Amino acid sequence: MSTAPLLRSSSIERPDKICYEPGNETGGDEQDYLIYFFGGNPGLIGYYQPFLSKLHDLLVTNSSTAPARFHICGHSLRGFEVTRSGEPPKSPLNLQEQVKYQEDSLYHHVKSHRERTGNSPKVILMGHSVGAYILLELIRNHRTVIEEGEEDFDLIGGILLFPTITHIAKSPLGIVASKVLHIPYLPVIIGALAKSLSSLLPARLFYRLVKFCTKFPDYAAETTVSFIKSPIGVRQALHLAKDEMSTITDDKWDQEVWGAATAEGTNVRDTINSNLTMYWGQGDKWVANHTRDALIAARGHKTDNQIGLQTENWKPVMLIDREGMPHDFCTSLLLSTGNSNIVAEKVKDWVDGIIHAHKKVVS
After folding, report:
1. In this structure, are residues 177 and 239 in contact, taking their beta carbons and an 8 Å threshold?
2. Residue 120 gets which letter from DSSP?
3. Lowest mean pLDDT: which of 14-18, 91-95, 235-239, 334-338?
4. How confident is the model at residue 309 (pLDDT cuts 50, 70, 90)?
5. Residue 17: helix, strand or coil by DSSP?
6. How far apart are the C-alpha atoms of 310 and 93, rounded to whole Å?
7. What 8-state DSSP symbol labels residue 31?
8. Is 141 left (phi over 0), alpha (psi -120 to 50) or beta?
9. CA neighbor of 99 nearest in space, from 118, 123, 75
10. 20 to 30 Å CA-CA from 315: which of 69, 196, 207, 303?
11. Spatial CA neighbour of 39 closest among 220, 207, 211
């Protein structure tokens, strides 16, 4: 564990949950920031351990936002439980049920943090792939709570990595998946076959087979073995993927989510919408280029060599990777440097930017 010297004993690295807590040394004026993460499908948090660990290292050692204390937490999606303590549901969950489960987990973690530390963290949400869709749904739900006058936590930013948030079925792999996933009883059949194979082969041989077929690094191969052997993990992944194809279609969020609520002359109490950063891959097989480009044109804030209007600074920053980063960055390696480390370095800078922008708004 590269972060061990920096972590409290309350930090957790389990197959179903990862939470990195700051060290015990505190100052009286430090602000707590919670970065809460939603993974993609298959929804096992173990795939993201090196990425989240590296991000925590960078924020603790190199953040420009001092004084600050960083907490990073994420749970596997429901139905992907691989431990005895994590009892799976009796049947797979659809996408909206996953949104509700992750929302409950987030609120539980914020409440637990308040009770444990006596203060409320400022929250930054982060999602990968379909986790970005979950993130946007939680932003909408959070705004509803605020508008109804209920007490809630401060949600100050969002980071969406390789987001699949519109028309996933029009993507290159989505076109194929839409057809295959409509085969009757496919999740049940594939789930049964996967569990049979894993139970027939010796554990060491099965691990080697998974590693050979996937070309994954050790941690990702081990996570995949746990996924295949889990009670309903394979069924859950296929059931969720099918629902994604029919649910993730048109841009369903209004300007309250995309950022207009923090444009000039509006209420800036909740500054989440002026601090969204989206990062797409070039040639991502799970995202159609034309749907991505249409979303950027309609919703994005012009950056880099584009000419943007000052009145549009509240819009999300939308970036397209130019370095060949794959959609599944968390399970692949790039030469001797992990892709997870490269993305973590980018995210660290975006987190710093979100915090600086929030401080500027509230000061």
Report:
1. no
2. P
3. 334-338
4. very low
5. strand
6. 43
7. E
8. alpha
9. 75
10. 69
11. 220
Asked if pLDDT for residue 273 goes beyond 70, the answer is no
CA geometry: angle 106, 111, 117, nearest 5 deg: 120
The predicted structure's pLDDT at residue 241: 98
Q: Could you tell me the two tokens for 109?
A: 């973690």
Helix (H, G, I), strand (E, B) or coil at 77: coil
DSSP-derived secondary structure letter, 44: -
Q: State whether the Cα torsion 94-95-98-104 is positive or negative.
A: negative
- Give pTM, 2 decimals: 0.90
Can you state the angle between helices 95-117 and 233-247, rounded to 10 degrees?
110
Taking the C-alpha atoms of residue 247 and residue 166, their distance in angstroms, rounded to an integer, is 9
The whole-angstrom separation of Cα 4 and Cα 345 is 19
The distance of Cα 155 from the centroid of its chain, to the nearest Å, equals 15
69 in Cβ contact with 22 (< 8 Å): yes
**Strand 31-38 vs strand 154-161: parallel, antiparallel, or unpaired?**
unpaired
Nearest to 247 by CA among 98, 123, 67: 98
Closest C-alpha to 151, from 197, 111, 91? 111
Residue 333: strand, helix, or coil: strand
Q: Which tokens hold the place of 193? A: 């076959």
Tokens found for residue 337: 């440097």
DSSP per residue, 268-325: -SS-GGG-EEEEEPTT-TTS-HHHHHHHHHHHPBP-TTS---GGGTTSPEEEE-SS--
The pLDDT tens digits for 7-18 are 444 578 888 999
Residues 6 or more apart whose Cβ sits within 8 Å of residue 205: none
Instruction: Give the three-class secondary structure for 155.
Output: strand
97 CB-near residues (< 8 Å, 6+ apart): 78
Residue type (1 letter), 37: F
User: Looking at residue 25, what DSSP letter applies?
Assistant: -
E strand residue ranges, the chain: 12-13, 17-20, 31-38, 68-75, 122-128, 154-161, 276-280, 317-320, 333-334, 337-338
